[in-house]
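Each record in this resource describes a single protein on a pair of labelled lines. An example record follows, reproduced without changes.
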Amino acid sequence: MGTSKSWSCFGYPLSIFFIVINEFCERFSYYGMRALLILYFRYFIGWDDSLSTTIYHTFVALCYLTPILGALIADSWLGKFKTIVSLSIVYTIGQAVIAVSSINDLTDFNHDGTPDSISAHVALSMVGLALIALGTGGIKPCVSAFGGDQFEEGQEKQRNRFFSIFYLAINAGSLISTIITPLLRVQVCGIHSKQACYPLAFGVPAALMAVSLIVFVIGSRMYKKFQPQGNVMAKVVRCIGFAIKNRFRHRSKEFPKREHWLDWANEKYDERLVSQIKMVTRVMFLYIPLPMFWALFDQQGSRWTLQAATMSGKIGIIEIQPDQMQTVNAILIVIMVPIMDALVYPLIAKCGFNFTPLKKMTVGMFLASMAFVAAAVVQVEIDKTLPVFPRGSQVQVKVMNIGNDNMTISFPGTTVTLDQMSQTNDFMTFDVDKLTSINISSAGSLVTPVTHSFEQGHRHTLLVWAPNHHRVVKDGLNQKPVKGENGIRFVNTFDESFNVTMNGEVYVNVASHNASEYQFFPSGVKSFTINSAEISQQCENDFKSSYLEYGSAYTYVIARKNDGCPEVKIFEDIAPNTVNMALQIPQYFLLTCGEVVFSVTGLEFSYSQAPSNMKSVLQAGWLLTVAVGNIIVLIVAGAGQFSEQWAEYVLFAALLLVVCVIFAIMARFYTYINPAEIEAQFDEDEKKKYLEKSNPYPKSDSFSQTQM
C-alpha cells in the first residue's frame, strides 16, 4: 500500500474533496451527453423513435455492464488509481469523438446544411459511445470504492457521510447538466450553414471530462493507494467452481456434510480466500431481488415523461415542458440527501429503532412501489379527460360545413344539421362495416351520397361546402399530440391553393376546399401569415393564433369575408390537457425518497460488507443490478402491451411489493459482519502459525489451533 501524508480537513481526508469534484464533473459530462443523445439520434442522424430508444437503452445497459471490466482491471492489474486515470483518458477521447461526429460541416461538402455521408457520422458516434461506455462503466465501481479507501479504521461515520456527499455530487452534476446542455443545443452554429449546435452541446461535456481528469490527477500525492492483489475475480470464479464440483463428487451419504457449501473448496484454497468469498456471495445473494427497483426507477425517463406529455404544464405562473419534469428528481435528491442524513436518521435513532442498512433498503423499495401506485392514480385521472380514439375496426367521423348554406347529413342511425361555418361538436364513432350510407342534402337540392372507403382505426373529417361538393379528409391524429405540443391544420375555402407560414413552419400548397396535414407547436401564442395570389394587397394577411396550451389540436378554416379579405375561424379537434403536471410531484417525491434510502445505503452497504480486496467487485455487482433493471424494462415494455397504461403501473407496483417482501425476509436472515475484524483474525492466526513453525517444541497445542 503506497501511503502518503494524511492531510485532513473537517475530520475528513482532504483527498476526498478531489474525488467528489471529479465525480461531479464526470456525472455532469455523462448526463449532459445522455440528455442530448436521443434528440441527436432522432433529428441529426434521423432514426425513428423506436430505433433511437432501443439504441439509447442498449447504451445505458452497456454503461452498467462495463463496471465488471473496470473492477477486474482495478482489483487485479492496475489498482484503482491507475484504472481511473487511464479509463478517464479513454472516456475523454470518446466524448471528443461524439462531439466531432455531430459537426455537420464534417461531410457537408456541398454546403446545403445536411451531411452528405450520414454513415460517417453514425460510425463516429458509435465509436464515441463505445469508448464512453467503456470509460464511464470502467471507472464507476473504482471511484466510489477508491473514495471509501481514503478513510482510516474507526471513521465509519465519516465514511457513510462520504457516500451521501458522493451521491449528492452525482445528482448535482446531473441536475445542472440536464438544465444547461439543452440550452446549449438551441444555440445556432456552423461554418457554412447555421443549425442547432450539437458540437457545442457535446463539446462542453467533453471539456468537463478533461477537467475531471485533471482535478483527479492533481490530488495524486494525497491519496492512499492500495496495491492490486492479483486477479480476484478469476480466483473467485475458480474457487466457486471447484467447491461445486467437489460437492458434487462427494454427494453420497458416507461423506460428512459441511457447514457451508463453499467449505468444499478448503482442500485446494486457503481459508482466508474462502471466507472472503463467503462474504461476497452472501451479499450477492441479497442483490438478486434488487433489479426490480431499478426497473421502476428507470421509467421516470421514459414512461413518466410520456405521462407528463398528456398533462398541462401551467403551474402557477411558470410553464414547464414534459421533459423538464425529470429535473424534479434531481432537485429533490439535492434537498433530500442532507435532510435524511441530518434529520430523519438521527430522529429514528433517538426513538431507539435500529434502522439497519437492509431495513432502509426495504423501505426504499416500498416507497418506490407506492410511487407507482400514485402514478396509476394520476393516470386514471388523465384517462377520464382523454378523448376517445377509434379502436380496431372503428372509424370516427366529424362533419365540417365550410360553405354558405345550411346542410343536413344523414348517417346510419343519426342525422345532423349544420349551419354555415360550423362543425359537429364531437366525432361520431361507427363500425367500419356499418358505415354503409352517408347522404348530404340541403333545401331545394338533390341528395348526394358520400362514397369513400374509410380507413379503420382513424379519424376522418367530412368537409361539405355545397350539396354536391364534399371531401373526406383522414386526420392522421389517432392519439394526443406527443411532447405536450399542439397540432394545427388549415382548411382552405378559397378557389386556389395558398401557403401558410406559422412560427417558421410552412404549410405548402394547401389546396382549394381541402385540409393540410397537422404541424406541431409548443405552448404559447403563434403568429402566422397567409400567402395567396387571390388576396389583394390591402388585406391584412398576418394573424395570431389563439393561446395554445398543451396537447390540443385545432383546425383553422380560412374563409373569405364580404370584402374578399381572409378571416380565420377556429375549430377544436382535440381539447387541451387539463390535468396539471404538478400532480406528478407526489410520485416523484415518493420515488426520490425511495432512491435516497435505497441507493445511498446500497452503495455504502456494498462497501462495508466487502473484504478489502473485493470492494470493486461488489460495487460492480451493485451496478450490475441497475443494468439488469434496464433490461427488464426493455423486455416488459416489449412483451406486455397493456391497453390501459394504469394497469401497467399497477403491475409494476405489485411486482416490486412482492420483491420487497421477499427481500425483507432475506434481510432478516443476514448477519452483518466487519470484514476488517475477520481479516485481522486471519492475520493473527498466520502470525501464530509462523511463530509455532519457528518454535518446534510445544506440539500438543498447535493441533487444536488449526481446528478452530
Q: What stands out?
A: The CA atoms of residues 168 and 334 lie 6 Å apart.
